[in-house]
Design a protein that fits this description.
Substrate Binding Domain Of Dnak, Chain:A, Domain 2, 20 strands, 12 helices, globular, Rossmann fold, Immunoglobulin-like, alpha/beta
């Protein structure tokens, strides 16, 4: 039992840390007696108007960290399509506790709602196993997060726990243990700490069923109709579940079944129809690490026309690949413009000078490993100037492209529009969320000047707010007319779209894409760019978060500038 005298009123130790005691609970949505050995922790920070309360406990063993959340909430809701706006538990973990601001390969952000529906913003879904149960006055969640490194007494882990309190389709409050700012989702330094303790000499962890159970769960979510041989997976899952039912189960049997399912997944063959779809591929972990030949970032200031007849001072960032030499005028570079989402700015994507955010590391590694040719990447903002995404293409064409592409070694020979048009095949534009809305406007107004378009997690609003969802046919018709009236052939422009099926943008972008497929004289749908000019990556489990968007960019980058 825990001596509560050793902890403050929130259940934290004298160093302000949460304490996890050694022990392996059964993850079944019920509270085992072993949880009594762990101290009870209460949220220190409540944002919003709520009478919801919560408490947490933590255990650990040689395989994983375990979290128990007991929530008292008299009105539970999962109505929102946006997972954070459902009654749920969020777990943020920095296993190395290195306290950097940006998420790294050891960091994760998991979420599970009161109905045990999981969503992953950052991290591998197979590391996450949960069970939930409703109570008379709320709900219980038991969560397990598999360790990547060896745990031991005294190890300190970065951690934040958050309860989302929903009313209807909205989040009305959050309850946090350590983060008073509400920014842990984007800033690892806002995490608190958890210390592992209590493992006695000779103590042994319980059976690790959960890596296998998590793998079974994710395998069952695979769309079997996409494969020629789904029976192989069904049989492997059936066999594994039979083994798990054995009362004399051993760890060796569990691990064997895990390996068998993994092997079967590697042998699944896509149907011809599924092979036509662009498949989501996660970014390998090493691509999130600093590489030996990193690019650099420069910042440019410029003035943009505003709606009052004046000008606003604005900034953008320019990524230059390793080895870029301003004096080498013979070496020309393609240019990708990438736009942030609503409430963000030009520094969000890969930071400013001297920074190394995740997307920059990914691009650095892709260039170093030869996945893509070196390119220049520009991150502007639609804020300032005319301050509206529908006006941004005007600023892009009249100010940004001439400014950037005459300053650096690109294919643009002069700043006039005819020269911009002549170099269009060396130019791409994409963006996330409101940046995706900007991308659709850019397709509409700048097709003469840009060949590649990358709308990520956002639909076209030319027919109204959320027009892709509310007016999909009309939106698709409008876009098709733009393409037809341009005089360009289908392989003179490309649309590479992506989102996740748990993304708030999916219900709007997916109907628009389905309607666009019907205009196959201008939008030829295929992952084979020799056949088509248009595809749509749908990532199972992907949410409206940059961790997923960076991976879509990783998947799409090799398809740019290949003609």
């Amino acid at each position: 039992m825990v001596n509560e005298a050793n902890f403050d009123k929130y259940g934290l130790d004298q160093n302000g840390r949460m304490v996890a005691v050694f022990g392996t609970p059964v993850i079944d949505g019920k509270i085992d007696e072993i949880w009594n050995t762990a101290p009870t922790v209460s949220p220190r920070y409540i944002s919003g108007n709520t009478d919801t309360t919560a408490s947490f406990k933590a255990l650990w063993d040689d395989n994983a960290l375990y979290i128990l959340a007991i929530v008292k909430d008299n009105e539970l809701s999962a109505l929102s399509d946006n997972p954070p706006n459902q009654d749920s538990l969020e777990i943020f973990m920095d296993e190395n506790n290195d306290k950097v601001r940006d998420y790294d390969v050891d960091d994760l952000h998991f979420r599970v709602n009161f109905e045990n529906r999981q969503s992953v913003d950052i991290g591998e879904a197979e590391r996450f196993y949960t069970c939930s149960s409703k109570t008379e006055d709320g709900y219980i969640i038991e969560a397990r997060i598999a360790f990547r490194s060896k745990p031991e007494n005294g190890k300190v882990i970065g951690l934040e726990l958050q309860i989302n309190d929903a009313r209807g389709a909205n989040r009305v409050a959050t309850l946090n243990v350590f983060d008073s700012t509400g920014s842990a989702w984007i800033d690892v330094s806002k995490f608190g700490e958890l210390v592992l303790t209590g493992k006695a000499d000779g103590a042994v962890s319980g059976l690790n069923l959960y890596d296998l159970l998590a793998l079974i769960n994710t395998s069952k979510k695979l769309k079997t109709e996409r494969y020629k041989n789904p029976d192989l997976l069904a049989e492997a899952i059936k066999n594994a579940e039979a083994v798990l039912a054995d009362k004399n189960l051993t760890q060796e049997q569990i691990d064997s079944e895990y390996r068998k399912i993994k092997e079967v997944i590697s042998r699944l063959e896509l149907t011809d129809e599924a092979a036509n779809e662009k498949q989501f591929r996660p970014v390998p972990g090493e691509y999130r690490q600093l590489c030996s030949k990193p690019g650099s970032i420069e910042r440019i200031e410029y003035y943009a026309d505003n709606l009052d007849g004046g000008k606003d001072l604005k900034r953008l960032n320019v990524y230059l690949p390793y080895g870029y030499d301003p004096a080498d005028k013979d070496r020309k570079y393609n240019v990708l413009y990438l736009m942030h989402g609503g409430g963000e700015n030009e520094n969000l994507l890969f930071g400013g000078p001297g920074e190394n955010k995740e997307l920059k590391k990914i691009i650095d590694n892709m260039i170093e490993k030869g996945d893509i040719e070196p390119l220049i990447v520009v991150t502007p903002t639609f804020y300032g100037g005319k301050n509206d995404v529908k006006y941004f293409p005007e600023e892009l064409l009249n100010t940004i492209i001439p400014l950037v592409e005459t300053k650096y070694n690109t294919y643009l020979e002069s700043a006039d529009k005819e020269a911009i048009k002549a170099s269009r095949e060396h130019r791409a534009f994409g963006g996330f969320s409101m940046g995706s809305v900007t991308t659709w406007y850019t397709f509409i107004y700048c097709l003469d000047y840009i060949k590649y378009f990358i709308p990520l997690s956002g639909d076209c609003w030319i027919k109204g707010l959320k027009g892709g969802g509310d007016y999909p046919k009309e939106t698709a018709q409008y876009l098709a007319d733009i393409a037809r009236n341009s005089g360009y052939k289908p392989h003179d422009y490309y649309l590479f779209c992506a989102t996740g099926d748990l993304d708030i943008a999916y219900p709007n972008l997916n109907p628009q894409v389905e309607e666009m497929k019907k205009f196959d004289d201008v939008f030829i749908y295929s992952s084979d760019l020799k056949k088509g000019n248009f595809y749509f990556i749908v990532c199972e489990g992907g949410t409206h978060a940059w961790n997923w968007v960076n991976q879509y960019i990783y998947d799409i980058l090799p398809d740019l500038f290949n003609n």
